[in-house]
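Table S2 (continued). Query chain:
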Amino acid sequence: MLRTLLLLGIGFAAVKPAANLYRRASNVTCPSTPSPFPAASSFPEIPTLPDPFTYLDGKTRVQSEAEWYACRQPEIVNFLQYYQYGYYPDHSAETVMATRTSNSLTVSVTANGKTGIFTATISLPAGASIASPVPVIIETGGIDNSPYLNNGIAVVGFDYNSIASDSNSKTGAFWSLYNGRDIGTLTAWAWAYHRTLDALNITVPEIDPTRVGVTGCSRLGKGALAAGLLDTRITLTMPMSSGVQGLGPYRYYTLSGQGENLENSKAGAPWWSDDELGTFVNQSTRLPYDAHTIAAALAPRALIIDQGVSDPYTNSKGTATVIFPAAKIVYDWLGVGSKIGMAIRTGGHCDLSGYTNVLPFVLETLKGTPTTRNYSDLSPWTAMTEAYPWASAVPSG
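Corresponding output:
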């Protein structure tokens, strides 16, 4: 059956500034965020992970959980778009149309008189129906579908190159709409996860839009992380072997892998991020955040991180022993410590075994299936507590 429907800005409106992505509580007074944002050279050098509880002004600190959600979380999402991702397009100015034919989905997005079109493939598990909708994992780059389908989870995939090429060429559906803007390719791919979800909401009633995971590996894991950050409809974020500009540390980059850092990632693929991130090259310790800040901003929503011990490229040890435990401190403080997990496995970069490695966490998050696995186990490593000295003074509120 062929069905075409029109969607006008459902659910999620992404507008500049990014603080509007998150609702502010009316009874909390937020400190002022510096305007304009400070230049890279104005920040102090911090060799350890910056304190996620300290605002961008460098002097005011979060005092309560309510203040985190009302003030600090929106500030983080805002400055991450300025310093790293580029500003997410205004979704309220977009019209999304979707056409479903069997297991194929065509998505058309129009904004400011321009149109971008891409396709996605739908794989539904046995038993999925309008009466019994199932959770979904939206992916790009390819995953091992079988374990998910066998456990009652749909998998929907799109071709990232049709959205934005992994190059400076500015081709693909996203750039058909937004060419000329200083936006990183990671944000373009994140946008495609969101527009795919819009299309599923229109045309695939067999999928439950309140139980949604996003995943990808390596550079696509970086994109999946951005997708989780920039749309609160995402229930579970699953970055696999994501490395720097994902959940690899900008600091402590020599712990494992090939020494992936801001300098060589920005030199090798400058299009992943906006131009502003380049101003921190050769002074990355001045960044007012690190990957743990990105992870913490996802709370209270779920995050599972996959890394292989033998990954020759990304800094698995840094992600596991520095970024994860620092982010978990924030999750624990917010009372949602079980919503973040570190899935360490044998093997290398983007092994498909990673998708079975995280599956018990996924099933617990999306289907309520209990797991006995300890996703805080960092074996064969241990947490580097000296990397986050602020942990001894978390807010008491």
